[in-house]
Amino acid sequence: MIHRLLAVLSLAFLCGSAVNAEPFVQGGPIGSQTSDGYNALGPVVQQPIDFPHYRHAKDMGINCMYCHTGARRGYVSVIPREDKCIGCHQNIESVKDKPRIKKLFEYWDKKEPIPWKKVNDLPDFVRFNHERHIQRFYFRQDRPVREVCGYCHGDVANMTVDRRVKSLSMGWCVSCHEKDHKESVTNMKTSHGPNECWQCHK
Hints:
mainly alpha; single chain
């Protein structure tokens, strides 16, 4: 009984905290960072290679899903395999002498996976479905990919090593699910995100 009471009180606290969070604004600025009062800036994660997101996503305009292919068709966005990186970089002579690229080829030559570390890591009991969000906001609403991914991940296109900038807490997610979102770019009908526990906790 006491466990059930504590769970209800925790849920009420989290949902109550979500009231101040701003909605997912239709047509908001690309990679916009809404102020949500969650003090969400995460720790600096030391990666084996300081991957320059700004060079790929901003300077070259590469779509996030070109590298993170799982985002449009599964729960996990996935980190690209080394052969995807090598497929481009073996043909770009101008950067082969850069320390980052040398390190990439060292892993490739040794046939070792790059030991990337998670930045936006959720607890094991949480199931976030990338596909459902990408399908709705990117494909059906035709919003810019940097805006859609940026709502949870921040303006990664202006980062070098990715850093968590949103809390990704239950209250933060609930605050977005409570808002009205258009169902598609051609349909003015709006709806909320699911609020059943089993949709995210399995």
